[in-house]
Amino acid sequence: MEKENNNTTFQERIDKGETIEPKDQMPERYRQQLIRMMSQHAHSEIVGMLPEGNWITRAPSLRRKMILLSKVQDEAGHGLYLYSATETLGASRQEVIDDLLNGHAKYSSIFNYPTLSWADIAVIGWLVDGAAIINQTMLARSSYGPYARAMVRICKEESFHKKQGYEMVATMADGTPEQQEMIQDAVNRWWWPTLMMFGPHDEDSPNSAELIKWGVKSKTNDELRQSFVDRHVQEAHTVGLEIPDPDLKFNEETGHWVFGEIDWDEFWNVVKGNGPMNRQRINTRREAHENGKWVREAAEEYARKQKLSEEKAS
Amino acid sequence: MEKENNNTTFQERIDKGETIEPKDQMPERYRQQLIRMMSQHAHSEIVGMLPEGNWITRAPSLRRKMILLSKVQDEAGHGLYLYSATETLGASRQEVIDDLLNGHAKYSSIFNYPTLSWADIAVIGWLVDGAAIINQTMLARSSYGPYARAMVRICKEESFHKKQGYEMVATMADGTPEQQEMIQDAVNRWWWPTLMMFGPHDEDSPNSAELIKWGVKSKTNDELRQSFVDRHVQEAHTVGLEIPDPDLKFNEETGHWVFGEIDWDEFWNVVKGNGPMNRQRINTRREAHENGKWVREAAEEYARKQKLSEEKAS
Amino acid sequence: MSTATTSKELTEEEALFEYLIRLADDRLILGHRLSEWCGHGPILEEDIALANIALDYIGHAANLYEYAVEIEGEGRHRDDLVYFRNDVEYKNLKITELPKGDFGFTIARQFLFSSYSYYLYQLLSDVEDEQFCGIVKKHFKEVQYHLRHSREWVLRLGDGTEESHERLQNAFDEIWMYIGELFYQDEIDERLQDEGLAVDTESFKADCKEIIIQTLEEATLKVPDFDQYMAEGGRQGLHTEHLGHLLAEMQHLRRSYPDADWE
Amino acid sequence: MSTATTSKELTEEEALFEYLIRLADDRLILGHRLSEWCGHGPILEEDIALANIALDYIGHAANLYEYAVEIEGEGRHRDDLVYFRNDVEYKNLKITELPKGDFGFTIARQFLFSSYSYYLYQLLSDVEDEQFCGIVKKHFKEVQYHLRHSREWVLRLGDGTEESHERLQNAFDEIWMYIGELFYQDEIDERLQDEGLAVDTESFKADCKEIIIQTLEEATLKVPDFDQYMAEGGRQGLHTEHLGHLLAEMQHLRRSYPDADWE
């Protein structure tokens, strides 16, 4: 009964729009759901460094190289920031990283697609960061304080990334025939996976209702996806790019773009681990972790020695 | 006295131009000198695969890629053939390879220079193989049968390599301004190291007299170098390339080209191990050897098992 | 750039061109990977053998590209296909572009690809196009040698030492998800099969599996699960991220001087 | 293409152009090597730190190239220097082009290069050219951070575990032959030194050695022999074979479409 009361009070706080802070009481399931979401989010930043990092050494101008390097560095920063925010819920960074490396934890499936041309970097900035922003703008009003604050900060940087991505898309769409072909090809490959980023339809999304009730999310997957489509179809048309969806049409009445059905088999396949790059991404992270073991051990041992000699000195 | 007599007989055979075969009696020093020369020669073929192998993946046409791959494969074959010839003198392949890997044995210093552009591949074929042929044509008349026969066979292939190299040089010298610049730059970098391939001046070459006495060599370093210069200056001029030697001039009386002094400091430095690529070449060979250890062990163990089960079966 | 046009729009020549390109790309890319061993093999004999096989593959590719541009009839040179296509335009199987790995990985790939190639070339030898047929027949002996060479090494490494057994097992486990694609076919294959110009990979899948199973078992190796998730996409130009790096190296010089003649 | 012209033929502008290119090439190439760590670091904080330092270097290089093309006055863009020179035209020190190796090797190189850069930038801050001076001063704080960062890691790894000690010692032993070139100078340096436009590396060699020795000793490492054979050649475009592969990757896309604008 005590617990029930607590939850009621908790729900009342949520309903009043109050922000939950780390030391506040919260239902265990709320805490678990947030750990899951936030650590997934952190992992996505880290794994997301790989497809983009793949092109740093090949960027076609010094300016673009610096922008990309800086972007990937930002993502590492976001990851760090989100791991810290997750730690406020009692989940240590080591634990959640272990979960990633042993395959228990997920990360955004979009990063299981490969970057095959430079145009992919432009399109990721535009579409993938564009989709992330829509999601994160909502999460910036999340009921959990540390998450909401992390989102505010991250959102600001991602808006910048999206702007840079779209600028690159526009340059290529306005470039040589080869550049135009390259950028359209990248849009063709990334459009549908980006739509999948918002997750399954509302009716197939078991967590959604609960997360909305708890004020973690305030919109459903389908609502978010619709705003993404509305915004990005417009942006595509502005620079003369086609969206690879024959069913796409504008509905004058609703003011929304109607779009075709997502290939959910592909979606679930990639989620299950059978995407084009799942195994490679995890292998790469594992290798980095294993190769770094001796470094982390050395740092710990050195810190231990330092502490010891400081203690002796005092 | 016995030994002295043997040696006299041996020298008589040499002087008569007879060929010494593995089972024949021979002075220990003759045997040792030949092991040294032949294994060095074998190592040179193997180490020589590296600078050229460096460009296989970047060859600018499919035809050139195949020619280069085939050439490098030939070199491996020469190495194998020469290791076998050396074994006729009682030096096992493993022993002589160990000597290479632990730095006791030498190989031609020319391979301690890096291949920095595709033009280097052309120039190596032309100049380095050209120099090798001059040396090997002489060695094909060497008093030691297995060495002489190896040289006949190798020389035939190397003449083909030189022809292909010179053809490439000619194509580039007749090509775009960039190709011309590239090929002249390569000639500038390889000319002097190639002249060094013939070794020190006769007066600084302690082994020469002895090797000539024993019919292993029939010309001195300086004689060989002169024939190289005479031939290759001509070939350079034919395709409009300059030789990077301000002192070069034709002596109408002798019919030979007079050329400038070699930088012997550089020569001895590279011989001592301080060339641009010495350490890297040996490291690469060592790594290949170490990485291959488990493979060689597996092959041995499998062979042992096979033999065992065959024995059981019979 | 990448997305394959459907066969309806394709003439027979276009379909054959695509079919030849696929075969050629497989061999060019795998040949490239093998050529990376040059000077780095575990024993001199294998330096020679791998360079030799690399040369065979690149030679096969050269012949196939040459025939492809001839069929295309637009006066292109085979090198245009090699040096001036991007990775999304390459149609090789993913298995061919994976990094060379250790000698065990190279052998596992060689054995799997050679088993497939053996049956493929055997059947392609009967194709109803004299020139194509001639190319295939010319190379079939080499393909037989590739299979023999890699099979022997599978036995040696699998049934060699504990370390070699483990390394080779890991290699097969790692590469397994890429073997499904060996039997991939689409409307291009089907269209040409009707004309007797292409082989139905289904027709030799069982035989191919059989030789793989039999060899792995003889080598005391565990046969990984044929029904696991299998990666595809190469035939549509949807590659791993490895191919782009390979092409950057392969094409850099040639693309730097597009007007230069190198013969 | 490669061979350096002697200073007699060079105007002051040409000498300064060459001097700037040398400085810029060092930073571009080392930045490239560091950027290869991105996503592969031993801990997230180091992923960030190494990317950050890479970005600093590439930023320094960009500023230096920009000033160089301004001085040259032929309307070239800084990217022309980056993407359209071949390896024999690059003038970076060999130490910057060596493959990244393990984290120990990267740290050893960072520490050695940062020690050198620290003194170099300190003295370059007084150079008698306002714009050049401004570029250097803007970056000096970053250079100080690079030294601090790498020095701390030398201590951690050197005086950490047995394994880390051994790895770092090997790294220093391996890289040592490339540090002589840090102090290389020729007629271009001398010519500019007279004009107060370049730094005499001899003037800080002792200090630089001192900080290296002191740090290695504090890290319980053996200081390799300063008098051993030292590799040179980078300033004349005579590189190791690594640079060509680096450039193939770096330049492939840009060279593939020389007329395209990427901003």
TrEMBL record, chains A, B:
Pfam families noted in UniProt: PaaA_PaaC
GO molecular function term, any single one: phenylacetyl-CoA 1,2-epoxidase activity
EC number(s) on file: 1.14.13.149
Keywords from the UniProt entry: Oxidoreductase
Region Disordered: start-end pairs: 1-24
Ranges annotated as biased composition (Polar residues): 1-11
Compositional bias ranges of the Basic and acidic residues kind: 12-24
PANTHER family: 1,2-PHENYLACETYL-COA EPOXIDASE, SUBUNIT A, PHENYLACETIC ACID DEGRADATION PROTEIN PAA
Name of the protein in its database record: 1,2-phenylacetyl-CoA epoxidase subunit A
UniProt source species: Fodinibius salicampi
Lineage summary: Bacteria, Pseudomonadati, Balneolota, Balneolia, Balneolales
TrEMBL record, chains C, D:
EC number(s) recorded for this UniProt protein: 1.14.13.149
Keywords: Oxidoreductase
Pfam families the record matches: PaaA_PaaC
Domain of life of the organism encoding this protein: Bacteria
Enzyme's top EC category: oxidoreductase
Molecular-function GO term, any one: phenylacetyl-CoA 1,2-epoxidase activity
UniProt-listed PANTHER family: 1,2-PHENYLACETYL-COA EPOXIDASE, SUBUNIT C (PTHR30458:SF0), PHENYLACETIC ACID DEGRADATION PROTEIN PAA (PTHR30458)
Name the UniProt record assigns to this protein: Phenylacetate-CoA oxygenase subunit PaaC
